[in-house]
Amino acid sequence: MKSAFVPRLINGPFGDPGLYVSLRWLGRALLFDLGNIERIPGPAIARVSHVFVSHTHLDHFIGFDRMLRIFLSRDTELTLFGPAGIVRNVAGKLRGYTWNLVENYSFSLLVHEVSSDKIVRCRFRARTGFEAEEIDEQPFSGVLHSEASLWVEAAILDHKIPCLAFALHEPTRLNIRTDALRQLGVPPGRWLSELKQRIRESAPEDTPIYARWRDQGEERVQEFRLGDLRRQLVLETPGTKICYVVDAIFHKENAQRIVELARGADLFFCESLFLDRDRQEASKRYHLTARQAGTLARLAEVRELRTFHFSPRYSGQAQRLVAEAQATFLGELPPDEP
Ligand SMILES: [Zn+2]
Ligand SMILES: [Zn+2]
């Protein structure tokens, strides 16, 4: 069965960084970074439920206005995560406009400001002219958001300012073996969802599961044990993991945090603004080189590395940045040392 995540970089490798992840079957999407999002059609933006902003440098945040415009007349709440200072940045953006005649708008923005030990939540409602309303504070221990079909983790990196890196996880996929079900002689039904639910909750092996169905107008019930059904019927496949890392200097602490976050990812999106030959410039500007991205991908043992966010100085030479990162990832070039 396919992964629930369909990720797509918003722009080319020299454009503003950003990742749009469609959530198959859920009819909505997640957005990582808010740079230039002109290339995402309006209806696709309207499907976004959660936005994850790494930091508010222009190339990661200028798309806020386009998003706001699309959402303003919608009857929904958009959830946004960002690093220390995000509440002030969002408030500043919102104060740039005049808000009257919006009393009947029900749109709101729920902002989560993430720092090393806590998340401060703040709501901005259209009908109040987007006055900031602080809601609460929650402890932060790595997980930003969690629901039945996915969860998102974050690490705080050093980009001379805090910059969030993200990992999107899909829980283990549970599929029913149709042949085994046929052998069991019980028709499929809602009881299979209950079985999956109990497995996800790590319920004990001897938990009873009742299969209920109708046979010629008569209600039938058969009792099974969760452990037996799990072995006989359920095919378990690890869920997909996608990691998104932008704008960070290559030092020990960052490298460690990135490798931990990206460990075993199926797909690792990593910035690489510079080539190795310009490594001095990369450190000075708190960015990674292609070789450093390849090193991190190799250390984290990811399955696939995709580099992006290339400096315009290499315009027309994207292939060189890609080749350097991939060769390091595959071990054909020596890794860099943080
Ligand atoms: Zn930056
Ligand atoms: Zn950037």
Please supply descriptive tags for the structure shown above.
eight-stranded mixed beta sheet; 18 strands; 11 helices; Metallo-beta-lactamase, Chain A; 27% helix; six-stranded mixed beta sheet; 338 residues; alpha/beta
Descriptive overview:
The chain has 338 residues and is an alpha/beta fold. It folds into three domains: 5-171 and 239-247, Ribonuclease Z/Hydroxyacylglutathione hydrolase-like (Metallo-beta-lactamase, Chain A, 4-Layer Sandwich), CATH 3.60.15.10; 173-237, no CATH class; 271-338, no CATH class. The chain contains eleven helices and 18 strands. The protein has an eight-stranded mixed beta sheet with strand order 1-2-3-4-5-6-7-8. Strands 9-10-11-16-17-18 form a six-stranded mixed beta sheet. Strands 12-15 form a two-stranded antiparallel ribbon. Helix 10 (290-299) runs parallel beside helix 11 (318-329). The chain is globular. The protein starts with a strand and ends in a 9-residue tail after the last helix. The mean pLDDT is 96. The chain binds zinc ion (2 copies). One zinc ion binds next to helix 2.
